[in-house]
Write a structure and sequence with these properties.
This protein is an alpha+beta fold. It has 7 helices and 8 strands. An 8-stranded mixed beta sheet has the order 1-2-3-4-5-6-8-7, sandwiched between helices. A hairpin with a 4-residue loop joins strand 4 and strand 5. Helix 2 crosses helix 4. The two termini are 22 Å apart. 32% of the residues are buried.
Length: 192
């Protein structure tokens, strides 16, 4: 899919539903719910960003994202529990490789909601959107090798572990080993 088409879709990011969650555009009303997990060092331990210092930081970040949504160059959804309407994390595409028709996904979940299959459900829905709506050929996910829970989410979504890029990323001043899992379009439709 062409860059312009993807930007057009994400400038009006569609709402996606699953059995337990809704994936929707992040809003300024998500400030309190996002700050609840984004301020925690245990949440950001395996992420490229540091904890939010205060609610004003989260508010400013969400304000910045509203501008990016308008131009279509932000590809993340808020994960919202369908029964409580609480925003409990994000999931989406972290980058696209338009020349090779592939993308990378990423996600973060409030620890209070871990172990309930929500990350797996959210990633599964984003993967489905990538293949069915964006006609991607490959979707991958990278993770710090110490984060075995993240790898399990990928494998539950039929992603194949491809290997480790030793000291593949400099994150918060430290070189980290990065694992890669992926799923191909043919594999997705074969298993569906």
């Amino acid at each position: 899919m062409k860059r312009e088409a993807v930007y057009s879709i994400f400038s009006r990011i569609p709402t996606l539903e699953t059995e337990h969650i809704t994936l929707r555009k992040l809003s300024m009303d998500d400030t309190d719910d996002m700050y609840e997990y984004a301020c925690r060092a245990d949440v950001t331990e395996y992420l490229t960003w540091s904890p939010h210092t205060d609610k004003a930081h989260t508010f400013d970040y969400l304000s910045y994202l509203q501008k990016r949504y308008k131009t279509g160059d932000f590809f993340d959804w808020a994960i919202v529990c369908r029964d409580t309407k609480k925003m409990i994390g994000t999931c989406g595409f972290t980058r696209f490789d338009f020349a090779n028709n592939s993308a990378e996904i990423g996600y973060v979940i409030n620890p209070e909601f871990k172990g309930k299959g929500i990350a797996t459900e959210a990633c599964g829905r984003v993967i489905r959107f990538g293949f069915e709506n964006l006609a991607l050929n490959r979707i991958e996910c990278r993770f710090m090798v110490e984060n075995s829970a993240s790898r399990r989410v990928m494998e539950k979504n039929n992603m194949t572990f491809e290997g480790v890029r030793r000291e593949g990323m400099l994150i918060k001043g430290k070189y980290r080993d990065i694992g890669v899992c992926s799923i191909l379009r043919s594999e997705f439709f074969e298993k569906k």
